[in-house]
């Protein structure tokens, strides 16, 4: 009889435990999806608040931009590094510089170039001009100084001087950067110029944009146009 009572008691305890377990499992299945949804909504609200704060900051930054200064900087950058390869323009610039400094371009060849590989110049394209010029050393030095402060940007990559024949071989590199295919996400912060970039723009502003010449079958100074044939 005693064993029967103990068995009944244990049975009641087990039943109570099972009922409690069923309630817990039912509540878990019922509440968990709602809790997960609520947490996801809360997370999304946080994301949207962050995005809204960025957009507000971007709006203020855009309103504070000096439109004329922005346009001037843009025009200057395009003169320094054009958005596409423009061989005729560079040849015109080199021809004009040579004429201004009494230098005769005896021969000119163009290489196909390629892309810059460093991180800071990634995406920047370059191509090269090999010039054979006839002039005295003083004229060459003056020409070199002019090249270094001219737009579009020209970089002297190599120089060989023959003093006997007053002939100099120059290897000059120039650049272009294609327009981006996308303008970025709406909520991307406005990119501001760094101190180094501002200094570079000020330096470029002091450079001389060489005006283009009309190139016929012959250019000024009796130099042959390499595209006439």
Q: Which secondary structure elements does this structure contain, and how are they paired or packed?
A:
Blueprint: H1 2-64, H2 67-80, H3 87-100, E1 104-110, E2 114-115, E3 125-134, H4 137-148, E4 150-151, E5 154-162, E6 167-176, H5 195-205, E7 208-209, E8 218-219, E9 223-224
Give your account of this protein's structure.
The protein has 229 residues and is an alpha+beta fold. It folds into two domains: 1-64; 80-180 and 191-224, Ribosomal protein S6/Translation elongation factor EF1B (Alpha-Beta Plaits). It has five helices and nine strands. Strands 1, 2, 3, 5 and 6 form a five-stranded antiparallel β-sheet that branches. Strands 4-7 form a two-stranded parallel sheet. It has a two-stranded antiparallel sheet with strand order 8-9. A hairpin with a 3-residue loop joins strand 8 and strand 9. The model is unreliable at 212-229 (pLDDT under 50).
Mean pLDDT: 78
Q: What is the C-level CATH assignment of the largest domain? A: Alpha Beta
* Topology pattern, helix = H, strand = E: HHHEEEHEEEHEEE
Radius of gyration: 36 Å
| Relative helix content | 40-55%
What distance lies between the first and last C-alpha atoms, to the nearest angstrom? 122 Å
Oligomer state equals: single chain
Query: What number of domains?
Result: 2
Strand proportion = 15-25%
* Main β sheet profile: 5 strands, antiparallel
InterPro entries: Transl_elong_EF1B/ribsomal_bS6
């Amino acid at each position: 009889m005693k064993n029967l009572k103990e068995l009944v008691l244990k049975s009641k305890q087990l039943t109570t435990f099972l009922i409690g377990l069923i309630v817990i499992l039912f509540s878990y299945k019922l509440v968990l999806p709602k809790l997960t949804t609520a947490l996801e909504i809360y997370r999304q609200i946080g994301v949207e608040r962050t995005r809204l704060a960025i957009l507000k900051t971007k709006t203020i930054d855009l309103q504070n931009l000096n439109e004329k200064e922005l346009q001037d900087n843009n025009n200057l950058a395009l003169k320094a590094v054009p958005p596409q390869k423009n061989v005729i323009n560079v040849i015109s610039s080199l021809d004009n510089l040579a004429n201004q400094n009494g230098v005769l371009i005896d021969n000119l060849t163009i290489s196909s170039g390629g892309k810059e590989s460093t991180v800071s110049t990634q995406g920047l394209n370059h191509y090269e001009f090999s010039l054979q010029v006839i002039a005295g050393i003083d004229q060459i030095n003056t020409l070199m100084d002019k090249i270094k402060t001219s737009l579009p940007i020209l970089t002297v990559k190599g120089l060989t001087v023959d003093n006997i024949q007053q002939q100099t071989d120059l290897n000059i590199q120039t650049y272009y950067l294609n327009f981006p295919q996308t303008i970025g996400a709406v909520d991307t912060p406005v990119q501001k110029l760094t101190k180094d970039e501002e200094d570079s723009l000020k330096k470029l502003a002091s450079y001389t944009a060489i005006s283009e010449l009309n190139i016929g079958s012959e250019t000024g100074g009796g130099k042959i146009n390499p595209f006439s044939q």
